[in-house]
Design goal:
Layout lengths: L1 E5 L2 E4 L4 E8 L8 E6 L6 E6 L6 E3 L7 E6 L4 E6 L8 E9 L10 E4 L3 E6 L1
Parallel strand pairs: 2-11
Antiparallel strand pairs: 1-3, 3-8, 4-5, 4-9, 5-6, 7-8, 9-10, 9-11
Length: 123
C-alpha cells in the first residue's frame, strides 16, 4: 500500500483545511487508517484514526470537535477536515494505515506511511 497525503498549506488562525490521503492497492479498504502530525522538535502524535468500515472514528481528546476524519473506500481515500485552526496546529501531517496490535494511538503500530503534508497556521 502506498499513501499520498495532500491538501496542506498556509491558513490564518480560525481557518479550515481539508487533507486527503489517497491510497494505492486494494487492501487499504480493509485497514484501520489514521492521521498523525509532527511539529518541529516534537514527537509524532496521534490526531485521529478510523476503522476500515468507516463507522467509528477516534480522536486525540484535545482535537475532537475541531477535526473530523472520514474515509471513502470506493475511492481509497481518507480525509481530515480541520476547522478553527490555531498556530499550535502547525505541523507536518502524515497519513498511515494498517495497525499491528491494538495500540491505535501509537505511530509505531502502523505499517504504511505516506510522505507528510505541511500545515502552517499563522496568528
Amino acid at each position: 500500500v502506498q499513501l499520498q497525503a495532500s491538501g496542506g498549506g498556509l491558513v490564518q488562525a480560525g481557518g479550515s483545511l481539508r487533507l486527503s490521503c489517497k491510497a494505492s492497492g486494494h487492501s487499504f479498504r480493509s485497514y484501520t487508517a489514521g492521521w498523525f502530525r509532527q511539529a518541529p522538535g516534537k514527537e509524532r502524535e496521534h490526531v485521529a484514526h478510523i476503522r476500515w468500515t468507516g463507522d467509528k472514528a477516534y480522536y486525540t481528546d484535545s482535537l475532537e470537535g475541531r477535526f473530523t476524519i472520514t474515509r471513502d473506500n470506493a475511492k481509497k481515500t481518507m480525509y481530515l477536515q480541520m476547522n478553527s485552526l490555531q498556530p499550535e496546529d502547525t505541523a507536518v501531517y502524515f497519513c498511515a494505515a494498517q495497525v499491528i496490535g491494538s495500540q491505535y494511538y501509537r505511530p509505531e503500530s502502523y505499517s504504511y506511511w505516506g510522505p507528510g503534508t505541511q500545515v502552517t497556521v499563522s496568528s
